[in-house]
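Closing statement on the zinc ion sub-project.
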Amino acid sequence: MAVRFRKSIREIKFLDPTKGFEENRVKFEFRIDPLTRRRTRIMDLKFRLPAPPDLGELINTSTKGRCPFCGDNLEKMTPKFPPNFIPEGRLQVGEAMVFPNFMPYDQNNAVAVFSKEHFIGLTQFSEELLVNAFLSSQSFFERVYKANPKHKYFSLNWNYMPSSGASLIHPHLHLMADKTPSDYHKLILKRGKRFWKKFKVNYWADLIDEEKKLEERFLGETGSVCWLLNFAPKGMMFDVLGVFVEKTSFLGISRQDLSHFARGLQKIFLYLKKTNLISFNLTIFSGLSEKNYFWTHARLVPRFTIPPVGTSDIGFPGLLHDESLCIVRPEDVCQEMKPCF
Ligand SMILES: [Zn+2]
Protein backbone atom coordinates (compact mmCIF):
# COMPACT_ATOMS: atom_id res chain seq x y z
CA MET A 1 0.00 0.00 0.00
CA ALA A 2 1.38 3.35 -1.05
CA VAL A 3 -1.78 5.45 -0.65
CA ARG A 4 -1.98 7.07 2.77
CA PHE A 5 -5.18 8.26 4.39
CA ARG A 6 -3.94 10.86 6.85
CA LYS A 7 -6.27 12.59 9.26
CA SER A 8 -6.22 14.26 12.63
CA ILE A 9 -9.13 14.71 15.01
CA ARG A 10 -9.67 17.88 17.02
CA GLU A 11 -11.91 18.19 20.04
CA ILE A 12 -13.44 21.51 21.04
CA LYS A 13 -15.03 22.22 24.45
CA PHE A 14 -17.73 24.80 25.06
CA LEU A 15 -20.64 25.44 27.42
CA ASP A 16 -23.71 24.35 25.51
CA PRO A 17 -26.82 26.60 25.70
CA THR A 18 -29.01 23.69 24.53
CA LYS A 19 -27.93 21.65 27.58
CA GLY A 20 -28.22 24.27 30.32
CA PHE A 21 -24.64 25.47 29.62
CA GLU A 22 -23.09 22.15 30.57
CA GLU A 23 -19.71 21.40 29.04
CA ASN A 24 -20.01 19.86 25.59
CA ARG A 25 -17.24 18.35 23.47
CA VAL A 26 -17.48 18.47 19.68
CA LYS A 27 -15.08 16.82 17.30
CA PHE A 28 -14.06 17.60 13.74
CA GLU A 29 -11.42 16.16 11.44
CA PHE A 30 -8.67 17.45 9.23
CA ARG A 31 -8.09 15.10 6.31
CA ILE A 32 -5.31 15.26 3.74
CA ASP A 33 -6.14 14.21 0.18
CA PRO A 34 -3.83 11.25 -0.59
CA LEU A 35 -3.06 12.58 -4.09
CA THR A 36 -3.13 16.37 -3.96
CA ARG A 37 -2.27 16.71 -0.22
CA ARG A 38 -4.92 19.42 0.00
CA ARG A 39 -6.75 19.61 3.30
CA THR A 40 -10.46 19.13 3.94
CA ARG A 41 -12.27 19.79 7.22
CA ILE A 42 -14.97 17.28 8.09
CA MET A 43 -17.84 17.83 10.49
CA ASP A 44 -20.33 15.15 11.44
CA LEU A 45 -23.62 17.04 11.28
CA LYS A 46 -25.93 14.24 10.06
CA PHE A 47 -27.25 16.89 7.70
CA ARG A 48 -30.44 16.26 5.68
CA LEU A 49 -31.98 18.45 3.03
CA PRO A 50 -35.75 18.91 3.04
CA ALA A 51 -37.76 17.97 -0.07
CA PRO A 52 -36.94 20.37 -2.92
CA PRO A 53 -39.55 22.85 -4.13
CA ASP A 54 -41.61 21.99 -7.21
CA LEU A 55 -39.35 22.52 -10.21
CA GLY A 56 -42.27 23.39 -12.52
CA GLU A 57 -42.04 27.12 -11.83
CA LEU A 58 -38.28 27.18 -12.39
CA ILE A 59 -38.63 25.29 -15.67
CA ASN A 60 -41.40 27.66 -16.82
CA THR A 61 -39.27 30.72 -16.00
CA SER A 62 -36.33 29.20 -17.87
CA THR A 63 -38.37 28.81 -21.07
CA LYS A 64 -39.61 32.43 -21.02
CA GLY A 65 -36.35 33.64 -22.52
CA ARG A 66 -35.67 31.74 -25.74
CA CYS A 67 -33.61 28.66 -24.94
CA PRO A 68 -30.93 28.40 -27.66
CA PHE A 69 -30.73 24.61 -27.28
CA CYS A 70 -34.46 23.88 -27.63
CA GLY A 71 -35.88 22.30 -30.78
CA ASP A 72 -35.15 24.25 -33.96
CA ASN A 73 -33.46 27.09 -32.03
CA LEU A 74 -30.27 25.05 -31.89
CA GLU A 75 -29.84 25.18 -35.67
CA LYS A 76 -30.51 28.94 -35.77
CA MET A 77 -28.94 30.17 -32.54
CA THR A 78 -25.80 28.12 -31.89
CA PRO A 79 -22.45 28.63 -33.65
CA LYS A 80 -20.77 26.23 -36.07
CA PHE A 81 -17.14 25.17 -36.31
CA PRO A 82 -15.10 26.61 -39.19
CA PRO A 83 -15.11 24.28 -42.25
CA ASN A 84 -11.34 23.71 -42.17
CA PHE A 85 -11.74 22.26 -38.65
CA ILE A 86 -15.09 20.45 -38.72
CA PRO A 87 -16.64 20.59 -42.24
CA GLU A 88 -20.02 19.36 -40.94
CA GLY A 89 -20.25 22.50 -38.76
CA ARG A 90 -21.50 20.58 -35.72
CA LEU A 91 -21.02 17.02 -34.50
CA GLN A 92 -24.03 14.80 -33.90
CA VAL A 93 -24.34 11.38 -32.25
CA GLY A 94 -27.96 10.29 -31.80
CA GLU A 95 -29.70 13.29 -30.24
CA ALA A 96 -26.45 14.74 -28.85
CA MET A 97 -25.01 17.76 -30.62
CA VAL A 98 -21.59 19.44 -30.21
CA PHE A 99 -20.92 23.02 -31.33
CA PRO A 100 -18.56 25.86 -30.36
CA ASN A 101 -19.15 27.75 -27.13
CA PHE A 102 -20.56 31.18 -27.99
CA MET A 103 -18.64 32.62 -25.04
CA PRO A 104 -15.30 30.74 -25.10
CA TYR A 105 -12.84 30.56 -22.20
CA ASP A 106 -10.53 27.81 -23.51
CA GLN A 107 -8.68 27.32 -26.82
CA ASN A 108 -11.03 24.52 -27.93
CA ASN A 109 -14.22 25.16 -26.04
CA ALA A 110 -17.39 23.40 -27.10
CA VAL A 111 -20.84 22.64 -25.75
CA ALA A 112 -22.44 19.19 -25.98
CA VAL A 113 -26.24 19.27 -25.68
CA PHE A 114 -27.77 15.93 -24.63
CA SER A 115 -31.04 16.18 -26.57
CA LYS A 116 -33.75 18.54 -27.81
CA GLU A 117 -35.55 18.10 -24.47
CA HIS A 118 -35.38 21.30 -22.38
CA PHE A 119 -35.50 19.63 -18.98
CA ILE A 120 -34.41 16.11 -18.11
CA GLY A 121 -34.92 15.04 -14.50
CA LEU A 122 -32.09 13.23 -12.72
CA THR A 123 -33.67 9.81 -13.05
CA GLN A 124 -34.77 10.40 -16.66
CA PHE A 125 -31.28 10.24 -18.16
CA SER A 126 -31.24 7.04 -20.21
CA GLU A 127 -28.00 5.17 -20.81
CA GLU A 128 -28.26 6.00 -24.52
CA LEU A 129 -28.70 9.73 -23.87
CA LEU A 130 -25.64 9.82 -21.62
CA VAL A 131 -23.48 7.63 -23.87
CA ASN A 132 -24.28 9.67 -26.99
CA ALA A 133 -23.31 12.91 -25.26
CA PHE A 134 -19.98 11.39 -24.17
CA LEU A 135 -19.35 9.86 -27.61
CA SER A 136 -20.02 13.17 -29.37
CA SER A 137 -17.63 14.85 -26.91
CA GLN A 138 -15.00 12.23 -27.65
CA SER A 139 -15.48 12.82 -31.37
CA PHE A 140 -14.82 16.55 -30.78
CA PHE A 141 -11.62 15.79 -28.84
CA GLU A 142 -10.47 13.47 -31.64
CA ARG A 143 -10.86 16.30 -34.16
CA VAL A 144 -9.02 18.74 -31.88
CA TYR A 145 -6.18 16.28 -31.32
CA LYS A 146 -5.92 15.52 -35.04
CA ALA A 147 -5.73 19.22 -35.86
CA ASN A 148 -3.08 19.88 -33.19
CA PRO A 149 -1.73 17.09 -30.94
CA LYS A 150 -0.49 19.71 -28.45
CA HIS A 151 -4.12 20.36 -27.49
CA LYS A 152 -4.25 17.15 -25.46
CA TYR A 153 -5.59 18.24 -22.06
CA PHE A 154 -9.23 17.24 -22.26
CA SER A 155 -12.00 17.60 -19.74
CA LEU A 156 -15.78 17.16 -19.87
CA ASN A 157 -17.61 19.39 -17.46
CA TRP A 158 -21.22 19.43 -16.39
CA ASN A 159 -23.14 21.99 -14.34
CA TYR A 160 -26.56 20.43 -13.79
CA MET A 161 -29.26 22.89 -12.70
CA PRO A 162 -28.74 26.45 -11.44
CA SER A 163 -27.30 25.69 -7.95
CA SER A 164 -24.24 24.26 -9.71
CA GLY A 165 -23.64 27.35 -11.83
CA ALA A 166 -25.72 26.33 -14.85
CA SER A 167 -27.26 29.36 -16.56
CA LEU A 168 -29.45 27.14 -18.76
CA ILE A 169 -31.68 24.34 -17.48
CA HIS A 170 -31.30 22.52 -20.82
CA PRO A 171 -28.74 19.76 -20.02
CA HIS A 172 -25.36 20.28 -21.64
CA LEU A 173 -21.66 19.59 -21.14
CA HIS A 174 -18.78 22.04 -21.43
CA LEU A 175 -15.81 20.56 -23.28
CA MET A 176 -12.31 21.90 -22.79
CA ALA A 177 -9.20 20.97 -24.79
CA ASP A 178 -6.11 23.12 -24.61
CA LYS A 179 -2.34 22.88 -24.72
CA THR A 180 -2.32 23.68 -21.00
CA PRO A 181 -4.57 21.98 -18.41
CA SER A 182 -6.49 23.80 -15.66
CA ASP A 183 -4.55 24.36 -12.43
CA TYR A 184 -6.23 21.43 -10.68
CA HIS A 185 -5.88 19.13 -13.71
CA LYS A 186 -2.18 20.07 -13.84
CA LEU A 187 -1.80 19.30 -10.14
CA ILE A 188 -3.31 15.80 -10.36
CA LEU A 189 -1.27 14.97 -13.48
CA LYS A 190 1.88 16.07 -11.66
CA ARG A 191 1.05 14.20 -8.45
CA GLY A 192 0.04 11.09 -10.41
CA LYS A 193 3.39 11.12 -12.17
CA ARG A 194 5.26 11.64 -8.90
CA PHE A 195 3.34 8.77 -7.25
CA TRP A 196 4.14 6.47 -10.18
CA LYS A 197 7.86 7.34 -10.01
CA LYS A 198 8.06 6.97 -6.22
CA PHE A 199 5.98 3.83 -5.66
CA LYS A 200 6.13 2.15 -9.11
CA VAL A 201 2.37 1.83 -9.12
CA ASN A 202 -0.51 3.84 -10.60
CA TYR A 203 -2.17 5.96 -7.91
CA TRP A 204 -5.74 5.06 -8.95
CA ALA A 205 -4.91 1.33 -9.09
CA ASP A 206 -3.46 1.50 -5.59
CA LEU A 207 -6.34 3.61 -4.30
CA ILE A 208 -8.95 1.15 -5.65
CA ASP A 209 -7.07 -1.84 -4.16
CA GLU A 210 -6.89 -0.19 -0.78
CA GLU A 211 -10.48 1.09 -0.75
CA LYS A 212 -11.74 -2.38 -1.72
CA LYS A 213 -9.92 -3.86 1.27
CA LEU A 214 -11.07 -1.19 3.72
CA GLU A 215 -14.74 -1.37 2.62
CA GLU A 216 -15.36 2.07 4.08
CA ARG A 217 -15.76 4.20 0.98
CA PHE A 218 -15.88 1.71 -1.92
CA LEU A 219 -19.25 1.75 -3.69
CA GLY A 220 -18.83 -0.89 -6.38
CA GLU A 221 -18.12 -1.46 -10.04
CA THR A 222 -20.18 -0.99 -13.17
CA GLY A 223 -18.18 -3.10 -15.62
CA SER A 224 -14.86 -1.37 -16.27
CA VAL A 225 -15.60 1.64 -14.03
CA CYS A 226 -14.91 1.69 -10.26
CA TRP A 227 -16.86 3.96 -7.93
CA LEU A 228 -15.94 5.23 -4.48
CA LEU A 229 -16.36 8.16 -2.11
CA ASN A 230 -13.37 10.47 -1.88
CA PHE A 231 -11.56 10.34 1.48
CA ALA A 232 -11.15 14.15 1.51
CA PRO A 233 -14.24 15.47 -0.33
CA LYS A 234 -14.33 18.70 -2.28
CA GLY A 235 -18.07 19.16 -1.84
CA MET A 236 -19.94 20.14 1.30
CA MET A 237 -21.95 16.88 1.21
CA PHE A 238 -19.72 14.38 -0.61
CA ASP A 239 -17.54 13.77 -3.61
CA VAL A 240 -17.87 10.62 -5.76
CA LEU A 241 -14.95 9.32 -7.79
CA GLY A 242 -15.56 7.19 -10.90
CA VAL A 243 -12.40 5.65 -12.36
CA PHE A 244 -12.05 4.29 -15.90
CA VAL A 245 -9.75 1.42 -14.94
CA GLU A 246 -6.53 1.28 -16.98
CA LYS A 247 -7.70 4.00 -19.36
CA THR A 248 -5.10 6.71 -19.77
CA SER A 249 -6.71 9.14 -22.24
CA PHE A 250 -10.42 9.82 -22.79
CA LEU A 251 -9.67 9.17 -26.48
CA GLY A 252 -9.02 5.48 -25.64
CA ILE A 253 -12.36 4.90 -23.93
CA SER A 254 -14.74 2.56 -25.76
CA ARG A 255 -18.49 2.81 -26.23
CA GLN A 256 -18.80 -0.08 -23.77
CA ASP A 257 -16.74 1.77 -21.13
CA LEU A 258 -19.03 4.76 -21.59
CA SER A 259 -22.08 2.53 -21.13
CA HIS A 260 -20.55 1.25 -17.90
CA PHE A 261 -19.91 4.81 -16.79
CA ALA A 262 -23.48 5.85 -17.67
CA ARG A 263 -24.87 2.97 -15.58
CA GLY A 264 -22.84 4.15 -12.58
CA LEU A 265 -24.06 7.71 -13.06
CA GLN A 266 -27.68 6.51 -13.12
CA LYS A 267 -27.13 4.88 -9.71
CA ILE A 268 -25.68 8.09 -8.28
CA PHE A 269 -28.53 10.14 -9.79
CA LEU A 270 -30.98 7.81 -8.06
CA TYR A 271 -29.23 8.43 -4.73
CA LEU A 272 -29.24 12.21 -5.33
CA LYS A 273 -32.97 12.11 -5.96
CA LYS A 274 -33.61 10.00 -2.86
CA THR A 275 -31.72 12.50 -0.71
CA ASN A 276 -33.42 15.61 -2.17
CA LEU A 277 -30.33 16.74 -4.09
CA ILE A 278 -31.25 18.18 -7.48
CA SER A 279 -28.02 19.70 -8.74
CA PHE A 280 -24.38 18.68 -9.19
CA ASN A 281 -21.03 19.45 -10.80
CA LEU A 282 -19.23 16.71 -12.68
CA THR A 283 -15.85 16.72 -14.40
CA ILE A 284 -14.16 13.92 -16.30
CA PHE A 285 -10.40 14.53 -16.22
CA SER A 286 -8.59 12.86 -19.10
CA GLY A 287 -5.04 11.57 -18.80
CA LEU A 288 -2.59 11.46 -21.67
CA SER A 289 -2.31 8.62 -24.20
CA GLU A 290 0.23 5.99 -23.15
CA LYS A 291 1.12 7.81 -19.91
CA ASN A 292 0.37 5.02 -17.46
CA TYR A 293 0.71 7.21 -14.38
CA PHE A 294 -2.78 8.71 -14.80
CA TRP A 295 -6.16 7.05 -15.28
CA THR A 296 -9.08 9.02 -16.67
CA HIS A 297 -11.61 9.59 -13.91
CA ALA A 298 -14.67 11.62 -12.98
CA ARG A 299 -15.59 13.54 -9.85
CA LEU A 300 -19.18 14.33 -9.02
CA VAL A 301 -20.08 16.79 -6.28
CA PRO A 302 -23.72 17.57 -5.41
CA ARG A 303 -24.65 21.24 -5.15
CA PHE A 304 -27.47 22.74 -3.15
CA THR A 305 -28.83 25.74 -1.34
CA ILE A 306 -30.04 25.51 2.22
CA PRO A 307 -33.51 26.77 3.18
CA PRO A 308 -35.03 28.99 4.45
CA VAL A 309 -32.83 31.78 3.04
CA GLY A 310 -31.18 29.89 0.16
CA THR A 311 -27.74 29.66 1.79
CA SER A 312 -25.04 28.65 -0.70
CA ASP A 313 -23.06 25.45 -0.13
CA ILE A 314 -19.88 27.34 -1.03
CA GLY A 315 -18.50 29.85 1.46
CA PHE A 316 -15.15 31.33 2.36
CA PRO A 317 -13.31 28.06 3.14
CA GLY A 318 -13.49 26.64 -0.37
CA LEU A 319 -13.44 29.88 -2.29
CA LEU A 320 -10.86 31.95 -0.44
CA HIS A 321 -8.87 29.42 1.63
CA ASP A 322 -8.88 26.74 -1.11
CA GLU A 323 -9.79 24.22 1.59
CA SER A 324 -13.06 22.30 1.54
CA LEU A 325 -15.48 22.07 4.42
CA CYS A 326 -17.60 18.93 4.37
CA ILE A 327 -20.45 18.42 6.82
CA VAL A 328 -21.07 14.67 6.38
CA ARG A 329 -18.55 11.84 6.79
CA PRO A 330 -17.85 10.07 3.44
CA GLU A 331 -18.03 6.71 5.23
CA ASP A 332 -21.64 7.44 6.28
CA VAL A 333 -22.58 8.51 2.73
CA CYS A 334 -21.04 5.27 1.42
CA GLN A 335 -23.24 3.13 3.67
CA GLU A 336 -26.30 4.93 2.34
CA MET A 337 -25.31 5.01 -1.33
CA LYS A 338 -24.02 1.44 -1.56
CA PRO A 339 -27.48 -0.19 -1.89
CA CYS A 340 -27.94 1.81 -5.14
CA PHE A 341 -24.96 -0.12 -6.59
ZN1 LIG B 1 -34.06 24.32 -23.95
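Residues 56-340 form a domain with the HIT family, subunit A fold (CATH 3.30.428.10). With this model delivered, the sub-project is considered complete and its resources will be redirected to Aim 3.
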